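Title: Comparing notes on inverse folding

I've been comparing how different people in this forum approach sequence design from structure. To keep things fair, I'm posting one structure and asking everyone to reply with a full sequence. Here's the target:
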């Protein structure tokens, strides 16, 4: 008999996720524990994860694949942009006239844009940009972002030094 509540769940309770009313996946405790294990080390073997969460290696493999297929998580190599040839990073605040989502969609199609956030506050959109150098950054901002219909203004915040970047916010 297991005393661990994660390990002692029934087969039905161990189903990795179900959709909530708003269409997002509701994750059970086992799936959350698997995600946490992978956030600590994305290369952790499925057998080691299984031991930690009380599942077989095969069950962990199936759960991980389902989480990937559902878009709940990604497993990627995170690099330091400076070491792979990208010497300039910036956060760009964008003010939009009209439809914010269409501008956000256009930004997501740009390879230099790492993430796009629609916000409430001084800017309608924040976009992180990673470029090879200042000329590349100028080209992206001036000729591509500012050229989008509906972009009213931009303000750039050039990174001088990145002190912390983490993907270890855990699960809830």
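Reply #1:
Here's my take.
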């Amino acid at each position: 008999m297991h005393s661990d509540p994660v390990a002692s769940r029934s087969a039905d309770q161990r189903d990795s996720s179900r959709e909530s009313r708003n269409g997002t996946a509701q994750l059970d405790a086992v799936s959350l524990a698997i995600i946490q294990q992978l956030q600590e080390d994305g290369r952790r073997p499925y057998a080691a994860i299984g031991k930690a969460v009380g599942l077989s290696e095969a069950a962990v493999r199936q759960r991980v694949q389902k989480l990937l297929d559902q878009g709940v998580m990604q497993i990627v190599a995170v690099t330091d942009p400076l070491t792979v040839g990208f010497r300039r990073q910036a956060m760009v605040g964008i003010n939009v006239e009209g439809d914010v989502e269409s501008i956000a969609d256009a930004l997501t199609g740009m390879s230099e844009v790492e993430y796009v956030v629609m916000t409430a506050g001084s800017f309608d959109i924040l976009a992180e940009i990673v470029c090879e150098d200042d000329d590349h950054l100028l080209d992206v901002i001036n000729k591509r972002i500012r050229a989008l219909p509906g972009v009213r203004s931009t303000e750039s915040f050039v990174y001088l030094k990145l002190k912390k970047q983490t993907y270890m916010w855990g699960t809830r």
